[in-house]
Write a structure and sequence with these properties.
Radius of gyration: 23 Å
Number of domains: 2
Shape: elongated
Distance between the termini: 23 Å
Number of helices: 9
Helix content: 40-55%
């Protein structure tokens, strides 16, 4: 299984940001409106931005940017993620958005209740809230990028929170159809527990055509039938529908 690298993911994020630009413009336009209109308008645009990532990731495993770059979000068993994992994956953005709306609402409501309008407009009245949000978002993005760079599986902090990994679409099987979903599917054990026997001449009993199994050396997922692990180079051969480690 091939993981999504930082440049490919950064490009996908850039595409998503371009798609979401109109919603960002709506949010900025809200700052020019009266405070009683600005709060719901900004909240609406930010919620749509969050929904874009959560809904598409839960339903398709990818946003439009990831679709263009051939990336997909899966769980650690290489399975499509649930709504719960999609929400967890976006939880840092949800928290930052909630904090921003709380600070902004406090400022704007103060303008309404106090019947005072800042001489340079709502943007200047709310500049501290906007600055704090931008600063917190940049710090989070930096921490995310550092985690992604040092992770062997290229997992950012939000991937670690949700138990997900971003992979290249061609390296994982497609989502099963409803008919296929009714049949029992292979589930890999926890990665810290090896299911390979000590003797390399003994087969991995759980392997079989159409399934994946963890490499005994690096725990990367290997599609049945592949002769070499892409991550560590461990070699395999197959006999009678079973996987064996190749000696030498």
């Amino acid at each position: 299984m091939q993981y999504g690298g930082i440049w490919r993911r950064a490009t996908a994020n850039a595409i998503d940001n371009a798609v979401l630009t109109p919603l960002g413009v709506v949010g900025l336009a809200g700052l020019a409106a009266p405070p009683e209109i600005a709060i719901p308008l900004i909240a609406f645009s930010l919620l749509l931005i969050l929904a874009y990532e959560i809904v598409l990731t839960a339903l398709l495993g990818r946003t439009l940017g990831k679709l263009v770059l051939g990336l997909r979000v899966v769980d650690l068993d290489a399975e499509p993620i649930s709504w719960g994992r999609a929400l967890l994956r976006s939880s840092p953005h949800i928290a930052l958005t909630g904090l921003y709306l709380a600070m902004l609402s406090s400022v704007l409501l103060h303008e309404v209740v106090g019947a005072r309008t800042h001489p340079y407009g709502v943007v200047f009245a709310a500049r501290d809230a906007i600055w704090n949000y931008c600063l917190a978002s940049m710090l989070w993005a930096l921490a995310d990028a550092i985690a992604l760079l040092i992770s062997r599986r290229r997992r950012a902090l939000h991937d670690l929170i949700a138990g997900t990994v971003v992979v290249q679409s061609a390296s994982v099987p497609l989502r099963a159809s409803p008919a296929e979903a009714e049949e029992p599917r292979f589930k890999s054990p926890p990665l810290e527990a090896s299911i390979w026997p000590e003797d390399p001449r003994e087969p991995l009993m759980l392997a079989g055509p159409g399934r994946t199994f963890p490499c005994p050396e690096c725990d990367a997922f290997v599609n049945f039938g592949v002769s070499e692990c892409r991550e560590c180079g461990e070699r395999f051969h197959y006999e009678d529908g079973r996987a064996y480690r190749s000696e030498g």
